[in-house]
Amino acid sequence: MPRLLEGIMEAFTLIIKLDPELMKIVLLSLQVSGAAIIISTLLGIPLGTWLGLKPEKKTALINKVIYTFMGLPPVVAGLVIYLLLSRVGPLGVLGLLYTPTAMIIAQVTLALPIVTGLTLVGVRSRGKEVEETARSLGAGPLLSAWTVVRESRVALLGAVVTGFGRVIAEVGAVMMVGGNIEGHTRVMTTAIVLETRKGNYAYAIGLGLILLTLSFVINTFLYRVQRGGEVNS
After folding, report:
1. Which of 29, 44, 75, 139 could disulfide-link to 134, CB 3.0 to 4.6 Å?
2. Residue ranges per domain, the chain?
3. Which of 178, 160, 181, 179 has the alpha carbon at shortest distance from 223?
4. pTM, entire model
């Protein structure tokens, strides 16, 4: 217990002093996870909306695949991406392994099925009714789909929040494809693992506190936006 309390005190000192190395790791974490969830949102919401508006019988196989990948183990995702980007892999010529780009690809692989699947469920729960109403008022296919997205925005935001929670706390996949290289691909989760193994508990606790705080702040903001959508709807 004394070691834990000492570590917490040292962690707060590092945070208050804005330790340069600590801040660099935090910034890279936000860049990687932020890019991953933006890409997943831009791809997943249109795909999930399209699937949600289709008859379930016609998309049953695709739905099952998406639901399966929603629970994809991070180490499996990391292994697949690693094999694709390694020197002997089909995409090895791109030289992306052990780069932030590879980490983003791995996180998109994990977040995209979640955003797509939850969007699909949210749209299907009320999308058909909204689409039929919009069509009866003279809206075309694109406008009808946009109306469905707007009316389902609370569920869609929930999908984004869940996807973000998945990637911000991910360790296995990003460590496999990023390599946890100091000053280059080290993010908060991988740094926590490394510093704990080294016995540098203050640094690990500091990163853990920052990770929890950032997750709380971002999710609180998204929750308020979501609640605002519920009230307005």
Report:
1. 139
2. 2-232
3. 160
4. 0.85
